Structures are given as C-alpha cells and as structure tokens.
Amino acid sequence: MNTIKHDVVVIGGGPAGLAAAIAARKSGCKDVLLIERDKRLGGILNQCIHDGFGLHKFDEALTGPEYAQRFIDEFNSLGIDSMLSTIVLSVDGKRNLYVSSRKSLTRIEAGSVILSMGCRERTAGAISLPGTRPAGIYTAGAAQNFINLQNIMVGKKVVILGSGDIGMIMARRMTLEGAKVEAVFEILPYPSGLARNIQQCLNDYDIPLYLSTSVIEIHGKERVTGVTVAGTDKNFKPIPGTERHVPCDTILLSVGLIPENELTRGAGVQMEARTGGAGVDDTFMTGVPGIFSCGNVLHVHDLVDHVSDEASLVGEYAVRYLDGEIKPPESYIKIEPQQGVRYVLPQKVSGMRDFTLSLRVTTPSRDRAVWVKDGDRKVARKKMIRLHPAEMIRINIKKEKLQGAKVLEVSVE
Amino acid sequence: MSKKELTCIVCPNGCQLEAMLENSDSGSLQITEITGHLCEKGPEWAEQELTHPVRTVISNILVESGDLPLVSVRTDAPVPRNMIFDVMKEIKAAKTKAPVAIGQILIKHPAGTGCNIIATKNVRNV
Amino acid sequence: MRLYKKIENMEKQYDVCIIGAGVVGNAIARELSRYHIRVAVVEKESDVSMGTSSRNSGVIHSGIHYKPGTVRARLNVQGNAMMSHLCRELKVKIQYIGKLTVAQDEEDIQTLHSLKEQGEANGVPGLEILDAAQMQKIQPGVGGIKALLSPSTGIICPYGLAIGLAENAHANGVDFYLSHEVSHISANGHGFRVRTAAGADLSCSVLVNAAGLYSDRICRMLGITEYSIYPCRGEYLILDKRLQGSLNVLVYPAPRKGGAGLGIHLTNTVDGNILIGPSNEYVDEADDYACTAQIIELLKKEGHELLPWLSTSDFIRNFSGLRPKQMPPEVKGFKDFVIESRKDVPGFINLVGIESPGLTCSPAIALMVRDMVAERLPLREKSSFVAERPGRVGFFHELPPDEQAELVEQNHDYGEIVCRCEQITRKEVLDAIQNPLGVRTVAAIKYRSRAMMGRCQGGFCLPRIVEILQKDFGYRPEDYILNSAGSRLFAGSVR
C-alpha cells in the first residue's frame, strides 16, 4: 500500500473544508490536501439551489451552488491539491489516515488534520416514529438530492414532519414542481427553522404550519397512505382526542441534524454531548493534538457564512500548529453554559488570544441579554431583541478580559 | 388606521415588522410607520411587500448531455409574487444543452417579466 | 418493472414444491438440491426471507428451554451443531458468543438448575452455573446473583442465512417463484397442482408447507382445518454500532412463569448493532408489522436501564416481527412444532407453528423433511452438487487495510464507498443488485449488501444507489420499488 505525506489534510470539500483549505494555503502552507468523497467540490451546497447564502460575507443573496463556486474558484486559483471521489476510511490519534478511491487504498501521514465532514439528518428511526415503514418516507435532504440533482420527483401529496429549514425549503420546492404540500407539523411550540422561511416557503404558498403537533402514526403497507397527527402537550406527548388523519403519499422529515463524527470518534477525540461534535479550544483544536474541527461536524450552524468564517480561522490555526506556534496551555479556562443556554463553543480557551464565542439558547425569548461572567465579573454582554434556538449567537471576546479567569459562565438574563 | 405584521425575508434575521397603515385621500393605503427592523433594509422591503411583493424564483432546467441531468437556475431579479407560477411554467418547458456556465442566461424575460433566468452552477458536457 | 426473474412457460412439473421461502423453506430446498429431483420454491413476497426469518433476534439457541423429548428440543440441539459448518459453506456470519441466563433471586436460581438439567437431557454441551464473580468476568456490569452459561448459544445474520440457503439451492438447480402467492392447490392422490395469483401452474408429487405465518391457510386449501396460527408481534429497536463492545455475551433474564417469549433483552448482532426487544403482543393480521408508540417507549425505557450510557441518537431504527404461534392469546405458552407427513393427504409434508427456535432448527428440519420426502421419492445424490457458495464471509470494511488495498487493486469497484455509515463498497452493492435470484428491489440490495442499514438509514447512500441503478442498469424513476409492486419509491421525473 502507498503511503504519502502532507502537511495539512482537510477532510471534506463542503463550505467548511473549502474555506479551511484556502485559509491554510493563504497562511503560507504549500502542502495542503483536501479529500472529498463526491466527484464535485461544494458538498451539500450543490443541492441547496435556493438563495439566501452569503448575505453576511458577500452582501448578496446567492444560491448554494453560487456560494460554493466562489470558494471553488479561489481554491482552484490557489492551486490547492485535492482528491475527489475519495473517502476517508479512518483517522487515528497520530494523524494517519486510510483513504480509498477507485484507484487505490492509500495511507496518508498528516502534519495536521482538519475535520470538516458536515452533518447528517436525523431519521424516522432516530425519532422512533410509530406505524409501518412503507415507501415514501424521506429525509428532506435526501428528497432535495433526488429532486435537484437527479431529476426524480419523490411524491405528489406531501406531509412534512418538523419545521427545520430544509423541510420548509423543500415544501416550497415541491409546491413549485406541482406537488401538494398538505402541512408542516412541528412537535415544539415554536418553529425550529428561520422566520423568513416560514414567510417565503410556507405562507407564500398557503402551506399551514401546525406547532405543538406531531405525527403519531404512519399508515400504509406498500406506499405511505397517510399519517395520524395529534396535538402535543408540554412533555411532547399526544393529547387524546386531538388525533386526526391526513392522507398523503409522502412524508418528509426535517427533524434535526447530527454532526457526522464517526471518524472523529475513531481518532480518539473527546466528544461533547451538547453539540454532538468534538470538544475544542479557542484554536478549534480537539483533545488530540494536531486534529482540528470546523463547520457542521463541530456544531450545527444556522448560516453557511458562519461556517466559512469559522473554517477560515481553523485553516490558519492548523498551519500555525505545524509551525509550532500552537501548544496547549498549562491550564484552560472552562466555558460553561448556564441558564437558558443550550451549548457554548469553544468549551475551553487558553486566555492567550481573542476568540468568538458561539452559542445557542434553549428557548425563544425577547429583550434579553447574553452574559458571559467570570464569577461575578462581567466579561461580555450582548443585548438581543430576539433570541431563538434556531439562531446561533456569536460574541467576540478580547483576551484582556480573560486575565485570571478560571471558569466563564454563559447565561441568558 | 390599521396595523399589518410582516416577516422580513431580506436576511436570516427575519425581523418581525409592524407597519401602520392609513387610508389616503385617494383611497390607496399609505404607510405611516414601520417598526421592528434591525436594519434599514427592513422598511424598504416592507414598503415593497405592501405595495407590490416580489420574489426570486428558483428551480432547475433540464440539461441534455451534461454531467448532471438538471442545471439549477434563478431569476436575476425578483419578479412579482403573483407571477411565480407563470415563470415556473416557462422554466418547466425549457431545455438546454451542456456545457452550461454559471451566470449564463437560459431564458430571456420569462412570462413577460423584465428579468432573465440564469444558471447558478456549471454543468460540464459528457 | 420485473420483481423476479421471468420463468417462461408457466406450466411446470416438479417432484417437490415448497411453499414459503423463509429460512425453513430455503433450508429444505437446499437440502433437496443435493439429489436428482426437480424442486421449486413458491413465495408470495418479492424476495426470500421477507417474513419471520428476517424479523427476529438472530440468535442460534442452545436448546435449554425446551422439554426433553419434544421435536423442538431435538431439532434445536441438532440444528445448533450443524450451523457452524453450514455457515462456513454458505459464507454466512455466525459467532458462538454464549449466553448468560441470569437469576435475581432464589426462585430464579431454581429455574437455572432446572434449565441446566433440561438442557443436559437435551444434549446441550458445556452448561455451567456461574456465581456473581464469574459472571462479572464474562460480562462486567451485569446485575444478578447467579447465571447459567450456555456456551453454544450464538448469533447469526438471519436473513444472511436464508438468502445464502436460497442462493445455494438456486445454484444447484432449484427454481424460485417469487411474487407468486399460492391461490389454489388441488390434490389428486398421486400429486398436487399448485396455482399462483401471478399465473404459475405447477404440478408436483410432494408438496411441502413451509408458509410460516400462512401455514394454516395452506392447510385449509387442502381441507386440513385443525391448525390455526395466531400472529404474535415482537417489536425491536436497533442501536447504533457505536455501542458495539458493550456486550460480550447474550444476557437474558431467567424465565418467569406466564411469559410467552424469552423476555425483553439486549442482543448483539453479527454486524455490530445491539437489538432491544422483542415485545410480545398478539395481533390480528399476519402482515401487521407496525410499531407502536407504547412499545417503543417501553423498549427505550428498558434500554436505558440495561445500558445507562445510551443516548437518544443511538436508536437508529425500529422494526417488528411476527411469531407464528399455535396457542391463542387466551392460552399463551408454547406448543411443539408440527412436522408431519400427512396420511390423509399423501405427499403433503406439513410444517406448522415453526416459531423460535426455528432459525436454529432450520438445517435439522431440512433433514427431517428430506427423510419424509425419501419415503415417497427415490433420492439419488447428484455429483454436480456444490455445497460452497462463492464469495467471502463478511464485508470489505471488516478486512485489514492491506487486504483491502489488494482488493481495490484487483477490482476498482472496491475502492468506491457507497454506503458511508457501514462502509459498503460499490462492488458489494453491484453484487447485491445482480443477486443470483434476480430480485430487483431496493430492499434486496439492503439485505444483501447492508447498504442503507447504518445510522443514517440510507439518507446518504440511497441517492447514490439510485444513481447506480439509473446509470448502469437503465432504471427510470418509476422502476424503483422498495419491496413489493405497490411500494414505488418515486412518482416520476421532475422534468
């Protein structure tokens, strides 16, 4: 078997991997390799043909493929190496990779590794939907692949379970293509996707969104024939007497995303239950030296613009690690989510550099502030008119504010 | 005086806007105040939305002999919201041949609108 | 869209027809394929192993649970002993990992002793009563005061066995009539005429009823009314492979009085998942494979108790299977297998109520049925019989990197991973698509290649498999079916 060496190896050629590889190259590393399992770069953006990407970064409402192309063009103009149609089988804690392509199985020794594999969708099994398992049940992303990339229509009479953004985007997409989208059902008392998508994907087409309502049974032996839905109480249990039958031939699931961390676990990286991704410090280095993580594999982002920004930083840190400039400090300052905060990232910082704290709240609220405190001392505070679990909050924190800190507590007050 | 609530779709913030409306002497609605926006695009958008709402139409067009069967497309400018399905009709009927380059105009002035349908990805010839 | 290989001239003559392509029917077919006779298997589903045979715990039982002298006890021990050799021949995964039956109190300990005695009377090898410390050594963390160790208990890929048997039988000349539901049977004293809803008209001198959940209906077609099957559903949850290694051995609670099954427990699978289940509820229909909110909740609760470090994202799928019980709901309990050569209907070999441990018993049942066939037909061994099924046990991803590299060199389709979660290669998917029985369903690819069985449940690889079928096999959107004619995946083209 062939063994090759590269300074920086980036796993995944979606928005995170592209931005990380570009940043690594621009930070002076001449030996960057990006590995992508598909035959095209761009990752999931290739099937996200809707617009709304890049408003923060480019001040334009680009479609997914257009946003990706900007990065692909830069990637190509910098002459960065890539292996397409190649999948990473494993990574170990010493940064050895086994990769497989139609040509060969190859071992790669990497100076530093950037994990940017993205996420996968939660399935019917993961949410344990009762009823039968006929044809016609798809995750929204799989349906998006069939419709936008393969010219295949998945169904004609559609029910969408979960109000995630991809589900709402697909509601509009399928309506434009002639399907009847009966409704979107959300078990939570608030939508899990962005407000703008409720307006432009559902309201524009008179597709009803039912909150605190869930599918409690799937019907159909061969193909889906319908679902039973019911209102749910505050513990998400169906309320007896509220059941009704909704005929449909297709169910799309948009019930959440799970970071795709099997390679990460294989490398012995310590995981964080709250994010489903690796635990990282302020350089996005995982617990295993030289292995970095960014994008949706680290934590599920709301906007691709944030993914690109995060990955650009990581590309730079991965190069600085090779140059010996990044070493774990003697002790870290821990960052802990408190009241009203679902997760924080990074989970620990060195105190030696400025960083951006990313976080999500647990429930929607208005006119609150996010506090970052060291004991009773205010480290940072961000006033928010609206807080929503669907939206990631980012707070820039200066290193000067971290002197002497042991634990930072983040809360909504 | 009447009040209208709107969700701004300009950016992911999705601001909840409130517009105060008044009947003008000529009988048309006059917007007197817009609140709830985080940026100046909000009022601008709300005015547009309340007078004549527009949307960007996004879909795919069939490609012959491409490395993909479809090329993703969009209107290069928003079209009146009530024209969406007219524009879709032309998109559905259209067909093109690979190669297709990102930005390429595939349909000029669909359904009599002033916009063009442009490709949003590259499709190689195979 | 073809669901099965078309057999020209639908009027055919056979020596033996077997109704039902579950593990039992296929084991009989494979056994009979050693001889100079013409054998057909008639199955109403689009593939083999679509019923009880693929919807169970995948356990090869030792035989401690059944009364000495019963058919089931004898066949269990015999089948268990045959399984290792059979799986080697058929390239089916099996692991004899052993089982602990755990006692929580004095009464349970009494049960363990009587199980041990019973097992020994049945000829089960290596039974041993362990104390808590010995138990902990085998499976750290298991709660209980004593346990009965049965080392001959194993785990197997149940549909892998059923498919392996069928493919090997087919290679040795057995015809499979899939998607052929038997609609009419007539007996004329010398033989039978079997007609199917799809238009096959088969005659045979020996007819074997291996129809499982439908065996009572087949009986009634021949005027035999003394049997009734009561489908009893068991629901399962499948856990993520991440938990592989949490369980070294099967752990069952000591059976308590009044239980109809062996109780809800954890079962390792040969592919690295853990199953929680099965539950135990009678249902009305023999094809009611729905899962229920109530049982899912119960299984999750049990799962969290048995594996405290379980997280909600570890549940990757739920499924259910049906036990073909002979005892009605109001009676419950076990009744011995019926395996009989009917005197009143000469040439009719009737199998009824083959529930657990039917999978384990299947090769031994096949021998028993062969002897019954031999009473009616001369069985002459054919020299052309090939016992070995081509291929290798297990998957590409289970091989060491050097062997993988070599395979990729030899065949580039091994280098392309199609199913990311299970790391299933394009070669393995292509083999499954071109399966010897000619089954052209998406479920057939799933059960043969293991693609779509991982944690993302096909979210990633189904689009890729659809693309392969379109590009290499010319499928149109309307050609894709999940598992039966009415289960189309797609509505058509977008454009």
Number of strands of chain C: 25
Discrete helix count of chain A? 7
The biggest sheet of chain C amounts to: 6 strands, mixed
The total domain count of chain C is 3
* Overall form of chain C: globular
Poorly predicted residue ranges of chain A: none
**CATH fold topology of the largest domain in chain A:** FAD/NAD(P)-binding domain
Globally, the shape of chain A reads globular
How many strand elements of chain A?
A: 28
What is the CATH-assigned architecture of the largest domain in chain A? Answer: 3-Layer(bba) Sandwich
Mean pLDDT of chain A: 96
Lateral arrangement of strands in the main beta sheet of chain C: 10-3-2-14-22-21
Largest interface pair: A-C, 57 and 61 residues
N-to-C CA distance of chain A: 58 Å
Any idea what the radius of gyration of chain C is?
Answer: 23 Å
* Overall pLDDT score of chain C: 94
Residue ranges of chain C: pLDDT <50 for 5 or more in a row?
none
CATH homologous superfamily (4th level) name of the largest domain in chain A? FAD/NAD(P)-binding domain
Strand content of chain C: 15-25%
When the domains of chain A are counted, the total is: 3
Protein described:
The complex is a heterotrimer of chains A (413), B (126) and C (495). In chain A, 19% of the residues lie in helices and 35% in strands. With 413 residues, chain A is of the alpha/beta class. In chain A, strands 1, 2, 5, 6, 7, 8 and 20 form a 7-stranded mixed β-sheet that branches. A 5-stranded parallel β-sheet of chain A has the order 10-18-12-13-14. The mean pLDDT of chain A is 96. Chain B is α+β, with helices and mostly antiparallel strands and 126 residues long. Helices cover 17% and strands 39% of the residues of chain B. Chain B has 2 helices and 10 strands; from the N terminus they run E-E-E-H-E-E-E-E-H-E-E-E. Chain B has helices at residues 41-51, 84-93; strands at residues 2-7, 16-23, 29-35, 54-55, 58-64, 70-75, 79-80, 95-97, 105-108, 116-119. Chain B has a 5-stranded mixed β-sheet. Chain B has a 3-stranded antiparallel β-sheet with strand order 1-2-3, with helices on one face. Chain B has a two-stranded antiparallel sheet with strand order 4-7. Chain B starts with a strand and ends in a 7-residue tail after the last strand. In chain B, 33% of the residues are buried. With 495 residues, chain C is an alpha/beta fold. Chain C has 3 domains: 11-52 and 159-228 and 335-374, FAD/NAD(P)-binding domain, CATH 3.50.50.60; 93-156 and 230-325, 2-Layer Sandwich (D-Amino Acid Oxidase, Chain A, domain 2), CATH 3.30.9.10; 396-479, Arc Repressor Mutant, subunit A (Orthogonal Bundle). Helices cover 29% and strands 21% of the residues of chain C. Chain C is built from 12 helices and 25 strands. In chain C, a hairpin with a 6-residue loop joins strand 21 (338-341) and strand 22 (348-352). In chain C, helix 1 (23-32) packs parallel to helix 5 (158-171). Chain C is globular, with a radius of gyration of 23 Å. The model of chain C has no long low-confidence stretch (mean pLDDT 94). At the A-C interface, strand 7, helix 3 and strand 11 of A face helix 7, strand 20, helix 9, helix 12 and strand 25 of C.
